[in-house]
Design brief:
It contains eight helices and eight strands. By secondary structure, the protein is of the alpha+beta class. The chain folds into two domains: 79 residues, Endonuclease I-creI (Roll); 103 residues, Homing endonucleases (Endonuclease I-creI, Roll), CATH 3.10.28. The chain starts with a helix and ends with a helix.
Length: 189
């Protein structure tokens, strides 16, 4: 399988919205992603494989799955990127920014039909400064979006892409999450 290693890495950084990095008491370094839809964890597995890492997908609870990658090298690289995420996201070229944001959208985003029958995309995050950087970068790509605003859940903030820019977001950024692809196709046949 041919893949773009730098895009796979950028995607995994973005997908850390549904992930965590930790070291076990017995000295293993773990990169872990969790999700209800095991199909998305197969995407994570594909990205990790592109970088040369093996992924273990296990059922965590009856309706929740985890993908675990045991690698000190990947753990260290993702930790370093995460520690300076604002600078990293600000400096990515357009191709790698799209890969990063695709990972973040797949982990932390939603595509929904609003009560007025318009479709919108939302990305939620606790880091309002990161969302501001993402909003600026999206506008630079010609995609309209809001500034971060408080969510009514989990003390997070949201940026929203309005109906008129949803198709452009999906064309330029896209999604690799199977259920988000299905949802987009059902809303924009």
């Amino acid at each position: 399988m041919e893949c773009e290693r730098d895009e796979a890495f950028a995607y995994l950084v973005g997908a850390l919205g549904d992930g965590t990095l930790y070291a076990t008491s017995d000295g293993h370094y773990v990169v872990e992603y969790g999700q209800k839809d095991v199909r998305w964890l197969r995407v994570i597995e594909q990205k990790a494989s592109c970088l040369g890492y093996r992924t273990h997908i296990v059922r965590h609870r009856s309706s929740y799955w985890k993908a675990k990658i045991y690698s000190k090298e990947l753990y260290t690289a993702l930790s370093e990127a995460k520690s300076r995420l604002h600078d990293v996201v600000s400096s990515l070229d357009a191709r790698l920014f799209a890969a990063y944001l695709r990972g973040l959208f797949d982990a932390e985003g939603t595509i929904t039909r609003h009560y007025r029958k318009t479709v919108r995309i939302r990305i939620a995050q606790k880091d309002t400064q990161l969302l501001s950087i993402i909003a600026r970068r999206l506008r630079e790509m010609g995609i309209e979006c809001t500034d971060p605003f408080p969510s009514d859940k989990h003390s997070t903030y949201i940026i929203q892409i309005p109906h008129r820019s949803v198709k452009q977001f999906m064309d330029l950024i896209g999604t690799e999450h199977p259920s988000k692809k299905e949802k987009f196709t059902s809303l924009f046949p």
